[in-house]
Amino acid sequence: MLHSTRTRRAAVLVPILALIPVATGLVPDRGAQPPEPANRDASEVAARIVTASLLDGQAYDHLASLVAAAPHRLSGSPGAAAAVEWARKRMTKIGFDEVRLEPCTVPHWERGEVQSVRLTAPASVTGVELRCLALGGSVPSPEGGIEAEVIAISSWDELAQRSADVAGKIVYFNRPFDLALRSTFEGYGGAVDQRSRGAVEAAKAGAVGVVIRSVASAIDDFPHTGGTNYQDGVTRIPAAAISTLAAERLDALVARGPVRLNLELDCRWHGDAPSFNVVGDLLGTESPEEIVVVGAHLDGWDVGHGAHDDGSGCAHALEVVRLLLDLDLRPRRTVRVVLFMNEENGLAGARAYARDHADELDRHVFAIESDRGGFTPRGFSTNAGDEALAVLRELAAPLDEIDAGSVDPGGTGADISQMAASGVPLAGFLPDGARYFAYHHTENDTLDKVSERELRLGAAAIAVLVHAVADREQPLPRNR
Ligand SMILES: [Zn+2]
User: Fold this and answer.
1) Domain boundary among 217, 238, 266
2) Considering the chain, what is the average pLDDT of its residues?
């Protein structure tokens, strides 16, 4: 029944689709050889999904609705609770077969009202504020702030060499994001250790506070927040990020002579709070017990809208199922959307999912996560072994039509990575990365930075791969 519907619709659509590009000369004629029947069918399905998303997609509506209902979604906050309720309702409205809230326990940290990095020396700049955001998880400073001399440090080696000079000072970690790297994710990876480890390493040497250059690709006045870590037995010192523009100014000052600043934060820790992953199933027609997970994280930082990080991923995931339902493309296996809680500052949702579903992870045939923004799709990265990699490449090949068919080994997603040990082949959605680190974790990560068409293309690309994996006769080979 389902299959005949599929074939009939495809038969009507495809000749029209096939004619347009050739007739308009927009794409090269790939020669007289028609594709093999199996590939042709896959191409037809892919074309239907992409066309439906471009013409009538609702990915942007999901995103606009989410950021209106819950612009700030940091774990444990009222905004995160509103996002959970929003997601439950949205899944129900889309028509998922089953929608569940699955409990997890999350940390609850609040930024507070005061965050200030103010220059106090030299005299020529006294009183100048450097735009800053507390790092997520930071302890507060004493009221009135900490006033101390700045020591600029650009590498862990330098910190070790100058550790005798650090006591009583504010360490300023100033290693920039390497803009020469072709992948902005590598650029981020090469600088983010200052944010995650800086407070611990500086405190070990006796520092009283930490300021970092925002881990960002743009030179502007929007500081980037993000999680910082502490370590038991090491003094917890306050930590903030200054904008890249402020960092350039501070670099110039430090090069000329001693600089002092006042760092004031009134962040608060509220201990643990109950929260939820939101899970929705589109049940498979033949093997509903076999599961393909489409993941994204529902939480976000408490600045901006988290529109790219990771509202777009949530919109992608929801739209995958809406498209499949709309096109009557319910696959053989279950497609499960998991909107994880607490990716940004703890991964509690991801751990709870892997723990609570441990007995069925051997029936999770694939998991994909979208957490790199809502930009133009380029392809996928995967941890799949050679066998599964070859299959994924074949299944994604129809996406070459929109330049999104590449599948290469690489990082996948923080939430789904909790399933890696069980042998589940994982993939990360890979959109264009040029702009992501200009926006993420800032006041600037707002809805207007997301292109509706790019978001629709991304949702379609993920839907094509997910449908192909979930509807394939054989499950994807597992990782060993
Ligand atoms: Zn994210």
Assistant:
1) 266
2) 93
